[in-house]
Model the fold of this input.
Amino acid sequence: MPINKLCTFVACHLKNVILRQLFCLVLVFGFAVPGLAQNNVDDIDKRFTADVLKRELFAKTVEERGFCDYVIQKRDDGTIPPRIIYSVYQKTMAKDRNVRFTYFKTALETVCKREGIVLYSTPVRATSSFPSFTLPSFRGLFQRN
Done:
């Protein structure tokens, strides 16, 4: 067999081996890696609890701890998307531990306001359905100043 044909045969064989290996590599990265690297949002929500917020934000007072509970409750009932809470939390973790809670609360209120999310629902005051039988001028006589 002449050397030219031998070199061509070896080059063609090596080319096929390399292409086969590249194809296998693409298959591995195409199917295995995304399956391993996939984050399940429900799994993150289960691990990201009010206790985690209280501990990591160094919530000290009863009101601060209550706010952490409230935020997670609002996440669970669908008022606040988890992505907003988690992104504000991640940004907060770069702050000094003494200001983390304050920063978290302020930033969350700001983002919710910007996104049009009502964080604090205001209680609706019910008005009486019965008519008033007293005149406003007469009623003013009995009110204390």
Notes: Residues 104 and 110 are 10 Å apart (CA to CA). Helices lie at 3-37, 41-47, 50-56, 62-76, 82-92, 100-115, 136-141. The first helix runs from residue 3 to 37.
